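Much of our argument rests on the idea that a fold can be written as discrete symbols. In the encoding step, the backbone of a single protein was reduced to a row of integers, each denoting a local shape. This step matters because it turns folding into a mapping between discrete strings. For completeness, the protein is quoted in full, as a sequence line and a line of structure tokens:
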Amino acid sequence: MDLTLLHPDKRHELSLRVEKVKFQMQIAGMDGLLVGSPTNLYYLGGGVFRGYVYIPVDRDPLFFMIPPSEGIGDMCHTIRKPEMIAGILESQGIGKATKLGLEFDDLSYSEIRRLMRALPAGEYSDATPVLRMARLIKTDYELRLMRQDGMRQAEVYKQIKHCYQEDMTDMEFQIEIERVLRRVGCLGYLRAAGNRMQLNMGSVIAGANADVPSPYDFSMGGAGTDPSLPVGASGEIMKPGTAVMVDMNGGFNGYQTDMTRCWTIGEVPEKAVRAHECSIAILRDLEHFAHTDVAVGEVYRRARRLADDAGLADCFMGHNHKVAFIGHGVGIELNEMPVVMERNDTPLLGNMTIALEPKFVIPGVGALGVENTYIVTDTGLENITVLDESLKQL
């Protein structure tokens, strides 16, 4: 298997990513880190493979490939099992780590225990925050991929109106949107941070279903069509006088963008129209306000204040179930760092990529609002999911 970032013309990109990981390792006091989760293997190699990556803090990384996966170059070593890693490290002059990082959040308990036995160390530490912090700031290469995703997702959203037919159920509508997504190259897999959130290709939330909480921390969850996946479209016929929110997959190349647009079926109450317009106004304001060095919590507080000033506090970020955030990081996964919430006092940094979603739930009508994916810059936010945001009828 030729991993993309191991190709000679991509070695610079690999070096940038490894250096970011090493910087976070130094902050955490780690002298070694072993990666085994698909998300982080993709980040470090440009492809998912069976095996591991070992990063010494003062040396080049080593790729350990378990057949049928195979690599190219002197960085790659073929192994049958992780117990072989320690011997190869020793042959390369890499001794036992004083503090070894392992992905406690992303690997199973049994695999963590096996790796601890296979790679003795002075102590073990959770490498998940180290890797998430390294992925927080995107390289120019990553930003190019995300801009491509945003353009392709917007092109699909232009076709959504044509997916609708009268008396459709919300699930039938979603399936038609999924068909368009797949036909234009969407990978069909929504990779989300954490192992407790299970999703399909996104959500179509119509009418009163927007006010049905799901087990996940979503402002508008939806009942789903089966208890095994209690989120999203419920299978009910979409009715006149309601709103339809579309929040579907934007993953075409290993990275993802997050994007929401809304439509109505017939006329909806004035409060619903006003809520949607407020969402757009909040985004326009934040696009100027949220620049490098502004605290993440200030972004949340400003959005909430604008919703309060509009007299919409009762339905902002949910109604039956409210959430305490208005956005999140996005990249290889949805729900990356940072979480845009009040108690997050970390500053925005250049080339962070965040999705902002100031949304509203109007009881009996549905969910309203817009979500875009942005790149943080010194002067504000660059929208990479550009498409008409106005509320139109299906």
